[in-house]
């Protein structure tokens, strides 16, 4: 294709958007994955495969239980990810999400080219691609990757479309019906994909407000039309929020203040400030030092930032003043965001506001809230500003500066070695060894639909597994995205009363037998035990208490016949065939009320309760003594096997058979062969107990949480118990309605924007010019 053909091609809107979005997405993909690399540090890892989405159940917000929440968002967004790509899923997912977001940015730039009569050329095409690469490969792209497996996933692809709709609502000369539909679409996008994420609520709504108000005041619309758009937008957004999200907002305010407290937020923000070594410059530029040859350049960041500032203001200082207004709005947004981000540094007393004003709590780790939004603002300003430059010399200068800045941003990732913002933890690019994929396939293709996996050794701080040549940290997020199932004890358990915590600290007591450890695993319903031999001991809170001796103790306890994978680095055992529900023959009541790691006596009580030779722990339940009277009064035929001041064990006689049908994360059907068994039957469910869980259960008399809320007991006299996590919560219905409504609106907008069908009467009646003439 010659230059002239390319020139004609990019004049077409659809080719311009398609080509620029595709090229920028592919270039970004090449930079990140040219060696098929994987970044992991801290608590997260971006998706390895579709296992990540399988693990996000519709009821629980994480694989270990978490809080009751609606994850329909993740299920919907999971359609963008292709499960048949297996270990290459993260490459495909990043490419798809990047392309979706870039398309909105390309379309926004093209519309402003047309709107301001800017000449379309190869330069504008390059400027668009450069702005999109800048957006997706900024200096904090590393954090963006880490956000992918969390509830932040949609912002990468969706937020640019919200800005696009805002621009269209205000700047396009469409009729009121089109504007109404665009307002509705933008509001639905904001609520479905962003509004429910606490950490993003404050910043995203402020940014949306800045763009909307800024464009509204700078537009040429009549005052009456501006007021109509403002009022309609506020009414729609507030109404949709009240219907679906307002209760959760109020709930979050009371929950975080009562459960976490102001000390957490103040300390978190102080830690964040220290991580940047008190440098306002690093905060404002969102930079950290890359570990490569570029960092050897004296005053590297001052130099690069100077180039960037020059590039950013070139359109404003050029002789041409026909600059899209969204350029100035984006620039103002960037400055306001930067000032907001730097406020704690400039005014230390500002930190106190975080603990006293609702939803400022969500900014306790500011780089989560600000990074992406700052880069969106900068990218919109770059793309829409550079295309307006007419002077050939300035165009050449801007291209050179743009290439230099992109090189400085992308080289650390291309080189595969960067540092985090604290400049203490190195993130290396690496490729997971093949045997990990083999283990993943064995477990994911096994007989269990949602297997439970115990990863050993565990740690009270973090587990670092040396799967790369650079001792790269691989912890919580890695295991949860590698396996299709619940991964236990792969990182710091927050509940220090739990069986997971017991498993974590057990090796530190240097006990001779691992039988209590395995009994705890049976209570948790563990199906597979994964033992890694290549951990990094320096991450443990007690120096080197996990060693080869402890690993050998555990492996000697487990039967060799249950090994399903074994090499020099990893051992995998098919530990048990436990199911999600069981009628316990044994109920163990324990008198424990303090965290195990604070009170050693509490630990030994639990140790004794897990080391009873007459108990089959596969069919046992562990319950707090506070529920002993409530349970025993509901039972008729049981025997007390053991009783002391701290432990009581009862055995149920003539326990009926139980079958679990359609076992999946959403619906559990439990059938009980009662025969002549007429008293209440305790059914142990190996799912985390949550307040309000009763509404999801049919046919029960009472629901009792087990020890540490890691499971719960349903007391029922019915022959069938159904636990359905779908269709019970009103917000779930609302999200589904919103999602389908969004699809319908998008389809109608495409038809109306392209004049596929005629709506002459309505168009004529609501035409903007007609309305303006009538208002005179």
From TrEMBL:
Organism ancestry: Archaea, Thermoproteota, Thermoprotei, Sulfolobales, Sulfolobaceae
Keyword terms: Membrane, Transmembrane, Transmembrane helix
Residue stretches in coiled coil: none
Stated name of the protein: Uncharacterized protein
Domain of life, source organism: Archaea
Organism (species): Acidianus brierleyi
Parts of the chain that traverse the membrane: 14-39, 59-80, 92-110, 116-135, 142-163, 183-216, 228-250, 296-314, 326-347, 367-386, 393-414, 733-752
